[in-house]
Amino acid sequence: MGYEYGxxxxxxxxxxxxxxxxxxxxxxxxxxxxxxDMIDSARNYNYILMDAAYDSSDVYDYIFExxxxxxxxxxxxxxxxxxxxxxxxxxxxxSIRKNESSRYKLRWxx
Length: 110
Fold this sequence. Notes:
globular, two-stranded parallel ribbon, about 110 residues, single chain
């Protein structure tokens, strides 16, 4: 979410009430490595909104297998989308992302 003195703050929030559900402060940790803790903290919400740093098969699979949430994750444009290499969960997520694109804009309020 943000940087302060070389530390990065990762947070999960309820965007309706703007309440922080959970947070972690890390140093030199990839966003994806902290994703599972943040997903667990938001597992009872209808939607999980994440930016492109979380665009990975591991994250999609984890959300599908461990929550009842609809995931709306931005596409990592550097990697691109190669249709014949997409996992089943990723194909579903891309369809959801297209249908729920207006919800992704809510992430910027965090």
